[in-house]
Amino acid sequence: MYQSENFDVFISYSTKNKSVADAVVSDLESHGIKCWYAPRNIMPGTEWVTAITEALNHSSVLVLIYTDDSNESRQVMNEIALQFNANKPIVPFRLCDTKMSSELEYYLTRVHWLDALDKTLPQAIEELRLYVSKLLEKKDSMTDTKTIELVNPVEGTAFEKYVNPATIKSSYRLITVVFVVLALAGSAAFMYHFVKMYNKASMLQNSQQESNVTTVTPDIPVPPETGVLYDEEALKDFSLADLEELEKNNQLDAAGYGEIGRRYYYGIECDKDYSKALYYLIKSDDYDGLSGENCKILGDMYHNGYGVDINDAKAVEYYLAALDQEYLDVDIYRNLGFYYYEEEDYVQSTFYYSRAVALGNDTMDMTNAGIACYARKDYEHALSWFGRALDNDADNATDLKKRIRQMVDDGYISEKDASQWLD
Which pLDDT does position 119 carry in this prediction? Predict the structure, then answer.
């Protein structure tokens, strides 16, 4: 079967950097290095998570295309964690100087990075290819060797030593496995919907290439004049009456159902009707057509109980699906921060509140990030967040100064460290 094929390199990247991934794969494969990367190598009918896991199991080296986007990608994070736990080499290909997230730092602290910042992309890719070639030549000895010195094939100088993750204690790896399972579970539902959508699109494209006639997939109605799905932005120019007429004529696609749901949720050209909004949005989801914005709307509905019983787990599922589509919204991060705080996952809570701060610079989000740090006994960062909130909004001075004073009195931080925020 296809999944049993062996590959030299697994390419981990954010979809926003696909052009770079294409260039890397083209160069590597033109020199005989067999690559796996999504979505090219995911076969129709294969679940996304299964395809990723199988590909990692049958690849020797993972190349991480490190950018601002991949640094924030949950999918990239999951791939790195799986590779780490398989005790296989990870080669970060750095295209930006952004400090890596705490999650990536957990896995990549002792891994050598290839820096592409000071050279052209073709030069950097050539260096990457030669480096990977050396790794592949030595992969048999890496299994039983704690450290291997790799020689820079371009300049002839020694690279830093690659540290095999097998040297890390088994208990450390066990904790990591648990984290990965939880992380995968959180986005598995969206991955399932995404791969179904990709499979349908692939089958439609293949069928159209084999025939000159318009092909219509039976479960996604398509406008008969064009034979293509409606553009999501173009749908916003349709009136609600036009959209509902298309529905009556069975000419509405997944994005169209989502647009009707959005109208009823916001009350555009109609009264707000959460029941109808839910109906059309879920129908769009069934057709694999939920946009990032509509994922956020469904998350809000389950979070607030709009037209449906409150269900925090479903809300989180849709919020994460929105983020996976790069739909960044301060309320999503804020609600996720609150959810994980209630679940006593204070690391995740801090992470999402900090993202909310990055988007909205809100004093309350800073305060909540500090509270989450305090809950996990990270008093240094708690002080930093409380102090930042104080600097941002003097109206909250009384409460924040009380929190800082209490940490000093409890011996968690020194008077000297807190002095700039205390009278």
Answer: 82
